[in-house]
Design goal:
The protein has about 260 residues and is of the alpha/beta class. About 40% of the residues lie in helices and about 20% in strands. It has an eight-stranded mixed beta sheet with strand order 2-3-6-4-7-8-9-10, with helices on both faces. It is globular. The chain starts with a helix and ends with a helix.
């Protein structure tokens, strides 16, 4: 009996150790490059280079309109790369807004490995490229990045799509049998950040979101004093949440 208990304990400890060592593999899912140039995906687009505080050079695309009311900085979620956000950029430029699409470190052929601290540096480097009014649009993990950046420099408006309350909270939801809060290196305390920011804000969620519990997004909306837009029947990565009319309207409304 004692031997069986020791074996069970050893298995659990091994699992926890492996999860701790490789936890960022469960958080970040970058798509590699190379990617086309900006003017290949949208006429008039310009390739830009971001310089981070820790010395990385990151690639992005700037779709700039001369008389735009604001520039929308898009903070992607934890998967893919900026090419997947082009449909949203097309919708926004059609509504008279400039758009900056960029990839975090490790994404889209960029150097480096993603982490909470690293993505915060990447976000600041993106913001350094823009003169004039900015609107932050963050999707899922990107909502956490945008919320943290808003405590550094308040935008004209803040739109968060499918935000979680913290990475620990959403991790505990999916892995209730693991001591997620004790293991996590990256925290992303979204509730804490949005509560410290006072700007016009909108939170969008899919009522059938299977990745971020809708209840967490509602908590973020309350803490941010934001308008809440719930899209019936929508799951986390459905097109209606990535580039649909309600997303575009929300961004325009705070621009």
């Amino acid at each position: 009996m004692r031997r069986a208990v020791l074996i069970a304990v050893a298995v659990v400890v091994t699992i926890v150790a492996v999860v701790f060592a490789f936890q960022r593999k469960f958080v970040y899912f970058p798509s590699p490059g190379p990617l086309p140039s900006a003017d290949e995906v949208m006429p008039g687009g310009r390739d830009v280079r971001l310089v981070t505080a820790d010395g990385l050079l990151l690639d992005g695309w700037h779709f700039e309109l001369p008389d735009a009311l604001a520039t929308v900085v898009v903070f992607p979620g934890n998967a893919g790369n900026r090419e997947g956000r082009v449909p949203l950029a097309r919708q926004l430029t059609a509504r008279g807004l400039s758009v900056l699409l960029f990839d975090y470190r490790g994404y889209g052929g960029n150097p480096g490995k993603p982490s909470e601290e690293g993505l915060a540096w990447d976000a600041r480097a993106a913001l350094d490229l823009i003169d004039g009014p900015v609107v932050f649009f963050g999707e899922s993990l990107g909502a956490a990045v945008a919320a943290e950046l808003a405590t550094h420099r308040a935008p004209k408006g803040l739109v968060l799509r499918s935000p979680f309350t913290s990475l620990a909270a959403v991790g505990s939801h999916h892995y209730p049998w693991l001591p997620v809060r004790a293991l996590l290196q990256d925290r992303y305390p979204v509730l804490e950040h949005v509560a410290a920011v006072d700007v016009p804000a909108v939170v969008l969620l899919g009522a059938q979101d299977s990745v971020v519990p809708p209840a967490q997004s509602r908590e973020v909306a309350t803490a941010a004093r934001a308008k809440l837009v719930e899209i019936a029947g929508a799951d986390h990565n459905d097109e209606v949440l990535t580039s649909g009319s309600q997303v575009v309207d929300a961004i325009v409304s705070v621009s």
